[in-house]
Design a protein that fits this description.
This protein is of the alpha/beta class. It has 12 helices and 10 strands. The strands form 2 sheets. It has a 5-stranded parallel β-sheet, with helices on both faces. Helix 1 packs across helix 6. It is elongated. It starts with a strand and ends with a helix.
Length: 275
C-alpha cells in the first residue's frame, strides 16, 4: 500500500515517513526533495511539480505492487496525478505543523496552493506518535489458517494481505489432526514477523471475534460463513495452485524434494513432527 504524506514545505512529512519506516516491516520512504536533488529538478512550476509527482508516484506504485508499504513524503499538490496512481487501499494524509516552520519564514510556501480536497485525514506534527499513527491509519487485517507447514500458498495469501495493510494478525486454527504443536507453529510464524493468535473453535460463534478486525483475508468457504455476521470485510483469495500442507507432508514422508514449496526452517519443523 501507499501512504501519501502531503502538506506544505516544512510541515514534517519526511519526519513522519522516516519514523514510520522504522516501525513498519518491508517499507520504503520516497521523499520529494530527494527526488528533486536526484534529477536536478528545481522547477516548482506546474510542469516541474508534475514531473516530480510522476517520478515519485510511479516508483511508489511499483514498490507497492511488489508487496511493500511505501511512505511518500511529497507536497504532491495535483489531485489528478495522485488519483492516477493511488488505489482504494492507499491513504492520503495531510501533515500540519502548529510549531515553528523555518521554511514558512524563508518563503518556501508563499505561492503554494494545492488541491487537497479529497484528502480526509490530518496529522499534526507536534502530536504525532508512531504507535497511534499505526493503529489509526493501518486497517487491522486478519488471516485465518491452520498453517500446518508454512508453504508457498500461505506466502501468497500473506503477501496479498500486506498489499491491504501491514497491520496483519494471523489466527491459527487448531484441529485434532494437527501434527505440529500450536506453540511451535506460533513461534514459526512469529519468526517471520507476524502477530499470531489462536482462532476460536469452529463450533463457536465468530461474530465478536471478527468485529475486532477491519478486513479478513480468506479462501475457505467454511471460515467465510463463520464470519458472515461480523462487521469485518471479506477479502477472498482463491486457493494457490495444488500446494497444500497435506501433500507437502506426504512428500516429506516419501523423501521427495519440497524446496520449491517450503523453506528450510519450515521443512525441519514439519519433518520433526511427522517422523
Amino acid at each position: 500500500m501507499i501512504v501519501m504524506l502531503l502538506g506544505k514545505a516544512g510541515a514534517g512529512k519526511t519526519t513522519i515517513a522516516k519514523a514510520m519506516e522504522k516501525r513498519v516491516k518491508d517499507s520504503f520512504v520516497i521523499d520529494g526533495d530527494e527526488l528533486r536533488a536526484e534529477t536536478a529538478n528545481l522547477d516548482i512550476s506546474f510542469q516541474g511539480r508534475e514531473a516530480n509527482m510522476h517520478l515519485g508516484l510511479g516508483r511508489a506504485r511499483r514498490l507497492s505492487d511488489l508487496g511493500f508499504t511505501v511512505f511518500v513524503a511529497m507536497q504532491a499538490p495535483i489531485a489528478e496525478i495522485r488519483n492516477e496512481y493511488l488505489q482504494a487501499e492507499d491513504i492520503q494524509i495531510l501533515v500540519t505543523n502548529s510549531g515553528d516552520n523555518p521554511k514558512d519564514q524563508k518563503g518556501y510556501n508563499k505561492n503554494f496552493s494545492p488541491d487537497y480536497n479529497n484528502v480526509h485525514y490530518t496529522v499534526e506534527l507536534t502530536k504525532f506518535n508512531v504507535e497511534s499513527f499505526y493503529d489509526e491509519f493501518f486497517p487491522k487485517v486478519l488471516v485465518i489458517a491452520r498453517f500446518m507447514g508454512f508453504h508457498s500458498g500461505h506466502r501468497v495469501v500473506l503477501e496479498e494481505a500486506k498489499r491491504i495493510s501491514p497491520n496483519i494478525t494471523v489466527a491459527l486454527r487448531v484441529d485434532k489432526d494437527d501434527i505440529i504443536p500450536l506453540e511451535d507453529n506460533i513461534k514459526l510464524l512469529e519468526s517471520y514477523g507476524y502477530k499470531v493468535i489462536k482462532s476460536p473453535n469452529l463450533e463457536d460463534d465468530w461474530t465478536e471475534f471478527g468485529n475486532g478486525f477491519d478486513i479478513f483475508v480468506q479462501g475457505n468457504p467454511v471460515i467465510i460463513d463463520k464470519m458472515k455476521n461480523s462487521t469485518c470485510e471479506n477479502f477472498f483469495i482463491p486457493r494457490y495452485g495444488s500446494v497444500s500442507g497435506t501433500s507437502i507432508r506426504e512428500d516429506i514422508k516419501n523423501n521427495k524434494d519440497v524446496s520449491n514449496k517450503i523453506d528450510a526452517k519450515t521443512y525441519e519443523l514439519v519433518k520433526e513432527n511427522i517422523v
